[in-house]
Design a protein that fits this description.
6-stranded parallel β-sheet; Arc Repressor Mutant, subunit A
């Protein structure tokens, strides 16, 4: 459950002065993370750097709020957590795809997550994120990563860089699962929770949707995967290590 207070509008810039970064540039950023204290910590860490030039113009703690704030503020860079209520970071990327493809002022995404799991990293990169760094990154390195992503560079934490290249260039890359690709991001979220033994009411509470909507998603998943019941769903998900 999120401890955040919800999406917020423009906030005070987190720089040290009005001069911007080392070359005078400024970059407008939206923070998307479901922990309010972490968002506060990121702003404080950025503010400790000597010359930042980073202005936090909005925050959000779930998918719907993220899409609303990003659309309203049109930042240059979004710092995006992978695991969010409402469908996860991949769902934010999917719904913000038109903003990423804007030729004149594209919104670029940098994943900032505690996770370094292959599924999470590959998922958001395939979704359109320009980079992926873990939450152990320093404030100085984070500011540098933000500016590099603004410039269109691909940025990864050192340990992840080689892993990502290997994953996309070798036969060790996670194979494309045509059955799984038939499912929407929300259907995948419901599938995982079903496979973990959650009741419909628990799934509804976890994803902030109604029980009736959960039932609709389960029916869609069963139809798309040509399965008969939740027990078969659980076996299917377990076999693919999705649980």
């Amino acid at each position: 459950m999120s401890d955040a207070t919800g999406a917020s509008g423009p906030t005070e810039p987190t720089g040290t002065d009005e001069g911007g970064g080392a070359d005078g540039r400024r970059v407008r950023v939206v923070l998307v993370d479901d922990h309010r204290m972490f968002r506060t910590g990121v702003q404080a860490e950025i503010g400790r750097t000597d010359v930042t030039g980073v202005e936090v113009v909005g925050e959000a703690d779930d998918v719907d709020q993220a899409v609303t704030v990003i659309t309203a503020t049109r930042p240059e860079v979004v710092l995006l957590d992978v695991h969010l209520p409402g469908g996860g970071g991949v769902e934010v990327l999917r719904r913000c795809s038109p903003l990423m493809s804007d030729a004149e002022s594209p919104v670029r995404f940098l994943a900032l997550s505690v996770s370094d799991a292959a599924e999470d990293v590959i998922g958001v990169i395939r979704g359109g994120a320009r980079g992926y760094v873990t939450k152990t990154i320093t404030g100085t390195d984070l500011v540098d990563s933000i500016f590099r992503v603004q410039d269109g560079d691909a940025v990864f934490s050192p340990r992840l860089a080689g892993f990502v290249l290997d994953a996309f260039a070798s036969t060790d890359a996670p194979p494309v699962d045509e059955d799984l690709d038939r499912l929407t991001q929300r259907e995948r979220e419901v599938l995982r929770l079903i496979a973990r033994g959650y009741a419909y009411k628990e799934i509804a509470k976890q994803l902030f949707i109604s029980v009736k909507t959960v039932e609709s998603h389960v029916s869609a998943v069963l139809r798309k995967l040509q399965l008969s019941n939740r027990h078969e769903l659980t076996r299917w998900a377990t076999a693919r290590r999705l649980v």
